[in-house]
Specification:
The protein has 249 residues and is α/β, with parallel strands linked by helices. The protein folds into 2 domains: 130 residues, Response regulator (Rossmann fold), CATH 3.40.50; 101 residues, OB fold (Dihydrolipoamide Acetyltransferase, E2P). The strands form 5 sheets. It has a 5-stranded parallel sheet. A 5-stranded antiparallel sheet has the order 12-11-10-14-13, with no helix packed on it. A hairpin with a 4-residue loop joins strand 11 and strand 12.
Length: 249
């Protein structure tokens, strides 16, 4: 796995290199860059790397400037002393946000997460290209706030999205609910249509959520999703035929 480090403090670079050697000795560090300018020049010319470790504040600016100017396909692990940039970090390809001083176990978990993304990236790109060469890849994860922390929720762990009192939630297979900053209309264009289906004005459900389907009044269908108290998760009548076709596809 080829990686680069964006960091302007020598002590932080040495510490991170030592931890990387401990948790992932097979990683090849292609370079360390102290400035936004140097990083952009490298990323514009070199073949893609597999992973980026990035501080937020570099010698000549904020690292987000890099990711707004250069297309990045690989995951980014942010390593910083500031906890105020987490939301912005996850609006890039950020998959984890480690506060300094970085602990070995936290870095180990972040690297394992990165390996999952990089190992599947080639296959995902091929599948997306075959499906529609002009389409944007389906969203693979969501970032949610839990207290003062940010957590990653993979789409494979999501049973449903729903709206309640003008707020959108996702509901996981572990029966947890998290607020997200998207409307159901926005989510429809982000999600894999083979995995998710909008059954009504209030609900988008995953194929895994459809294990208990009950005939309902007026030729409609009711879905029972464990952990959601709403007793009327019902497929809209005008969507029933399309929903059945989706289940059978």
């Amino acid at each position: 796995m080829r990686v680069i480090i964006l960091e302007d403090e020598n002590r932080a670079v040495s510490h991170l290199k030592r931890l990387i050697h401990e948790v992932a000795p097979g990683m090849e560090i292609d370079g360390v860059f102290e400035t936004v300018r140097e990083a952009i020049a490298f990323l514009e010319q070199e073949p893609p790397v597999d992973l980026i470790f990035s501080d937020v504040q570099l010698a000549d600016g904020i690292s987000f400037e890099i990711f707004s100017k250069v297309h990045i396909d690989c995951p980014i692990i942010f390593t910083t002393a500031y906890d105020t940039y987490a939301i912005e970090a996850f609006n890039t390809n950020g998959i984890d946000y480690l506060l300094k001083p970085i602990e070995e176990e936290r870095l180990r978990k972040a690297v394992e997460k990165a390996k999952q993304f990089t190992s599947n990236r080639g296959l995902e790109s091929l599948l997306n290209l075959r499906a529609d060469p002009g389409s944007k890849p389906a969203k693979s994860r969501f970032m949610v706030k839990v207290g003062e922390k940010i957590r990653t929720i993979m789409v494979e762990d999501i049973l449903a999205f729903y709206s309640f009192e003008k707020t959108t939630y996702l509901h996981t297979s572990t029966h947890r609910d998290y607020i997200i900053d998207y409307s159901l209309e926005e989510l429809e264009s982000m999600l894999n249509v083979n995995r998710f289906f909008r059954i009504s004005r209030k609900y988008i459900v995953s194929i895994e959520a459809c294990s208990q389907i009950i005939a309902w009044s007026n030729s409609r269908l009711k879905i029972v999703i464990e952990g959601i108290d709403d007793q009327k998760i019902v497929v809209a009548r005008e969507r029933v035929r399309e929903f059945k076709n989706w289940l059978d596809s």
